[in-house]
Design a protein that fits this description.
There is one protein chain. The protein folds into three domains: 56 residues, no CATH class; 52 residues, no CATH class; 230 residues, P-loop containing nucleotide triphosphate hydrolases (Rossmann fold, 3-Layer(aba) Sandwich), CATH 3.40.50.300. The protein is 41% helix and 22% strand. The strands form three sheets. The chain has a six-stranded mixed sheet with strand order 9-10-11-6-12-13, sandwiched between helices. Helix 8 packs across helix 9 and helix 9 packs antiparallel against helix 10. It is elongated and about 120 Å long.
């Protein structure tokens, strides 16, 4: 391409009309191409600006302490002071983000340099937590994170919860809200990263493995969506299994027969799981969960694999047993019509209780 600068820097020459027209056309093309490049650059700058603004909105939303329980600090000294309480904690510290000063160029000075979970810096011992005498289960400051590759999933973000003795509670939330994680931590099936679970006044996760297993066997009953029945045991053997493991033999036969009749599965007592329908399998699971007369019945999506009519029958059965035995029931569900059977509904969103 002919350079216009070259035209003025070189010695003066004279052009005929043909050369002048040619030069003008090249100059016009060069200016047009330059204009196109400028417009393209403007478009890219606008796109970058929009993405930065979107990032700023999402980041500020995440750093909202009322939504995520995130404490913010704008100075290194304040952050160091917060770290002093680490010596009093036995749990791991999860530093969530360290924002460099370059962020200030994009997001102004109102953003913090550091962020961290505020509940981590609570120095209270388990004995210092206040619990209600009416509660069979009390949860305080429960935090649970999972690592998925390079990503951290914040399943529970500081949950406080009380379940009264004999209460029927539904924990409701969308998929990924942290419902099953909460149930597993409450039942001692999974350990939280921070926080305590009191069961009948005792710190559940401070118990030894054998003592914790004994609590789950005797005081807790479990109903799973997948039934979790032993395929080589018939119906009566599956129902009797918890009592056999606990060493309960007195009146066992009569109790098993009552349970089988109570859930309407006594005619299938000799059949194996492979010979039963989904509704029948769940009835067996309910009877098994009630064999040792537990203090708490945990049900994780108990109607998830059932059609609506069978699911309704199962929920009526659970409600009937609750009313007759006053057993505490904690059910996990994402379906509002299932949650309606409970006396109280607890809504969980992104690992935080939003209503109780």
């Amino acid at each position: 391409m002919f350079s216009i600068f070259k035209l003025f820097n070189e010695p003066k020459v004279f052009f005929n009309k043909h050369d002048f027209i040619k030069l003008s056309e090249e100059l016009r093309r060069a200016i047009k191409q330059m204009s196109w490049k400028i417009n393209q650059g403007k478009s890219l700058l606008i796109e970058v600006q929009e993405k930065l603004e979107e990032c700023q909105i999402k980041l500020k939303d995440y750093l909202d302490e009322t939504k995520n329980g995130v404490k913010t600090t704008k100075s290194n000294e304040e952050f160091k002071l917060a770290l002093l309480s680490l010596a009093e904690l036995s749990s791991d510290l999860f530093i969530e983000a360290e924002l460099s000063k370059l962020w200030l160029d994009f997001f102004s000075s109102d953003l913090p340099f550091f962020t961290y979970q505020s509940n981590i810096f609570n120095p209270r011992t388990p004995q210092a937590f206040e619990t209600s005498a009416e509660s069979i289960i009390s949860v305080r400051g429960l935090i649970k994170n999972y690592k998925l590759g390079q990503t951290t999933v914040y399943a529970l973000r500081g949950v406080d919860l009380d379940i009264k003795d004999g209460e029927f509670v539904a924990i409701v939330g969308n998929s990924g809200a942290g419902k099953t994680t909460l149930l597993n931590c409450i039942a001692g099936l999974d350990a939280p990263d921070y926080g305590v679970v009191f069961f009948k006044g005792k710190d559940l996760h401070n118990l030894g493995d054998s003592e914790k297993s004994k609590v789950r066997l005797i005081d807790m009953g479990f109903i799973f969506q997948s039934y979790a029945l032993l395929p080589h045991f018939d119906t009566r053997e599956n129902v009797a299994l918890p009592a056999d493991l606990a060493g309960f033999s007195k009146d066992l036969k009569n109790r098993i027969e009552e349970l089988l009749k109570g859930v309407g599965i006594n005619k299938q007592a000799k059949q194996y799981p492979a010979q039963l329908s989904g509704g029948q399998l769940q009835r067996v699971a309910i009877a098994r969960a009630l064999t040792n007369r537990p203090k708490v019945l945990f049900a994780d999506e108990p109607t998830g694999d059932l059609d609506s009519k069978t699911g309704e029958q199962v929920m009526k059965l659970i409600k009937k047993f609750h009313e007759e035995t006053k057993t505490s029931v904690i059910i996990i569900t994402h379906e509002q019509d299932i949650a309606a059977y409970a006396e109280r509904q607890i809504t969980l969103e992104d690992g935080i209780i939003t209503s109780a």
